[in-house]
UniProtKB/TrEMBL annotation:
One of its GO terms (cellular component) is membrane. Keywords: Membrane, Transmembrane, Transmembrane helix. CDD domains: SPFH_like_u2. It comes from Croceibacterium salegens. It is found in: Membrane. The chain crosses the membrane at residues 12-32, 44-70. InterPro entries: Band_7, Band_7/SPFH_dom_sf. Its main location: membrane. This is SPFH domain-containing protein. It is a single-pass membrane protein. Coiled coil: none annotated.
């Protein structure tokens, strides 16, 4: 497929043409008024006068048909009998030859919030996602001539790009690995989605300025099970950190007792002390101390 490319159209300032038209109308009025046939003029003279008036009106109407207005952040695609002749982006009143076609389109930023779609993440879990995309027309020729309906094309490609990016990453990951997840790496996912959409929409002359997820959740059929799984993984992760912290604290306590020569413990009493400290540090309930009034070995 041959891609179109935007170019500048050869148009005229509408204000200048309007001024010339007004001057021409005033002059024509005086000329016609002075040329009005008298009562005894011939029929041919009267017909010629009527033809002059109709011709003048036709010329004025033809010139008026060439005027058009371009608002800020708006463009007009100019064609001549189906051939692309350029794009006019100059704001204000413009004029072009009346037999040339013009199609206006907005080059402002468009904000699109996609519908929620169900996809499978990297691990095959069904999830519901939606995104928000800010896009604009960068090349008017491609938008008008290279796709049938560029707005519908954008909506379809947004859904396709969302499915592609969503399938690259897992929804969440409770392991210690530094993985990119849909829930925990919002900036990375947004950057990937924007790049994916720009690649897909380049053929239509569309540029995506911003893209990001606005909704992310497990599908209803597995939401309950995945919530219990997340809770279990969170409990396991918390317990692992608690045990590692308790072991380091016990090690620090034993080393400190030995360094300061406070007490010397044999292997049996050392194991008993470690067991008691681990129970105190890892237990979920408050521990009641027991005072030993006897010797260390009773």
């Amino acid at each position: 497929m041959t891609r179109s490319q935007e170019g500048a159209a050869s148009t005229f300032s509408g204000y200048l043409i309007l001024l010339v038209l007004l001057v021409a109308v005033v002059l024509a009025w005086f000329l016609i008024r002075s040329a009005v046939p008298g009562e005894y003029a011939t029929k041919a003279a009267k017909l010629a006068f009527a033809g002059t008036i109709l011709g003048s009106i036709g010329i004025v109407g033809l010139v008026l048909a060439g005027f058009y207005m371009i608002q800020p952040n708006q463009a007009a695609v100019i064609t001549l009998f189906g051939s692309y002749k350029g794009t006019d982006r100059t704001q204000g009143l413009r004029w072009i030859w009346p037999w040339m076609g013009k199609r206006k389109l907005s080059v402002r930023a468009h904000n699109v919030h996609s519908d929620r779609v169900k996809i499978n993440d990297l691990r095959g879990n069904p999830i519901d996602v939606a995104c928000n995309v800010v896009w604009r027309v960068a090349d008017t020729a491609q938008a008008v001539f290279d796709v049938d309906d560029y707005k519908a094309f954008v909506e379809i490609q947004i859904e396709a790009g969302l499915r592609t990016v969503g399938a690259r990453h897992p929804y969440d990951d409770m392991s210690e690995d530094d993985l990119t997840t849909l829930r925990g790496s919002a900036e990375v996912v947004a950057s990937e989605l924007r790049a994916e959409l720009n690649e897909r929409l380049h053929v239509a002359g569309i540029e995506v300025d911003e893209a990001g997820l606005t909704h992310l959740a497990y599908a209803p059929e597995i939401a309950g099970a995945m919530l219990r799984r997340q809770q279990a993984e969170a409990v396991i992760a918390a317990r692992a950190k608690l045990v590692m912290g308790a072991v380091s604290m016990v090690q620090m306590a034993l080393d400190k007792l030995s360094e300061d020569d406070i007490v010397h413990l044999d292997d049996e009493r050392r194991a008993s002390m470690v067991s008691n400290l681990m129970v105190v540090l890892c237990g979920e309930r408050d521990v009641n101390p027991v005072v030993n009034a006897g010797s260390l070995y009773t």
